[in-house]
Amino acid sequence: MSRKASDNVEYTLRSLSNLMGEKRRRQADGSAGSGAAAGERSLIAAESCSSLNSAASGGELERAARRQFQQDETPGFVYVVSVFSALGGFLFGYDTGVVSGALLLLKRELNLDALWQELLVSSTVGAAALSALAGGVLNGLCGRRPCILLASGLFTAGSGVLAAARDKETLLAGRVVVGLGIGVASMTVPVYIAEVAPPHLRGRLVTINTLFITGGQFFASVVDGIFSYLAKDGWRYMLGLSAVPAVIQFLGFLFLPESPRWLIQKGQTQRARRILSQMRGNQAIDEEYDSIKNNIEEEEKEVGAAGPVICRMLTYPPTRRALIVGCGLQMFQQLSGINTVMYYSATILQMSGVEDDRLAIWLAALTAFINFIFTLVGVWLVERMGRRKLTLGSLTGTAVALIILASGFLLSAQVSPRITLNPTDPSHQNSTCTKYSYCNGCMLDPDCGLCYKLNKSSVVESSCIPVDEHSTMKAAWGRCSNESIFKKEDLFWAYNFCPTPYSWTALLGLILYLVFFAPGMGPMPWTVNSEIYPLWARSTGNACSSGVNWVFNVLVSLTFLHTAEYLTYYGAFFLYAGFAALGLVFIYGCLPETKGKKLEEIESLFENRLCTCGMSDSDEGRYIEYIRVKGSNYHLSDNDASDVE
User: Model-level pTM?
Assistant: First the structure.
């Protein structure tokens, strides 16, 4: 129902009481004998009569109505549906996070070079990008529930392939299958939760999906740490365990309902009413049902059936602006480097000077735990601060943390150990490794490593030597060419990192990054995208924005190791900080506040020019909606109107 239409709606005492719930209706009936005049003033429950009768302004009525409405209990069924849906987010997080620790073991057991490491990470992301785009069509044709079942099946199949893999090619195939499941889940789950959630809980429940994503990443890092102690094949358990939650979700969704909004769109109105009643409990559903139904009918009249949905979205200004905002949010989420941090956290810690694989994996688990905890903070803040303020504050802190992280690597580079020995290659082949004077230059060359001794905390007798072509864990020749012997002689081999006393700065930078990123920029792009599109464009809009997310995810994850090689480690993170600053400008100008608004009302936020959607939010954030009760008019704020209407 449009806002213009709702402005003229008259509410009787009976319909308002119905909307307040059965409990307050019984209380109002009990006080009906106190007189006709008192009855007309009893808009809410009996216990609020005295406060309402003495109210000096509409503002007091607004607050009382708000308190009484929020006493309606949301049925537990809504939370059950949301949790089973968010298992898709858990699988998303697990399968993207587990690769961080698994890579350290895989590159040793399967002798993976930098290109194959990037392929195993980015193949999942690339497959997710393709399936997210296809997921929009599938959601529109088949519904939300079948798509979630499909994603669960793909997760299960991919986990089996990964656990049984015997070579890197099979691993690559398994990562692709898992990526297909991730893409479908990433664009379906937020939409499904948003469509079944009550308006006053929608932001919080959609954010739970991101909480499950970060929970999956943390759980994956703990699994990485546990199985890193196995002498061989620990990565098989790491990659294969995701089959368990996938099977649980599949079995659960065999008994869970379809989205009522999708059913209404397809004409299955009786089934939609029954499901909506399950989701709302003792709250009356007539107003919400009529609002959804009328909104669908109006949209069908406006857009007709001409052309594909994406073409209609691009030619209709409000949806075109919403699509730009949604895709922009997802793009800057990735360009600010989050999945570089999550996919390569253990590798980044090794780059900073953490030598032991297991220590790097457990420190990566610590960063994943920080991510999880501060996503909980985001769940608490989203309905208090609103989407816009939370996103702006989060991205500002993210940019600062990236600068700190880059500065830590820059500091380490400034005190990089000097190369003191230049042994001759016994094969007399020319090597680029001999030209480096400092460890930092040697580490940026993927063909070289550092062989050295320690005198207390000082690096001595250091030489830059070509790495063995079959394993990065030893040199091609010289003192560090035999792993068992050089450890007995107190020699150390460093590949991909330089010994430095400043390795703690990378850990500090990663923690600060996640403290700021997790509450806002982590969940908000998904939450906002689940809200800003009208029903006819919701599946396609979320598919496009998810596709953009995964495309930029591929670009960042596929290029990180090479970007660090050519721009240096600190240069790569300064680059991500610059992207975060650009995103801050975009969000400030273009993102409106959607807190507390019905899905059917949000379209009006994009009626103005794109660059004014965000900056004019303070002017548009409140509108007056009149409720007429036997001749008395009161006004509600937009937030309360969306709940009490």
Answer: 0.64
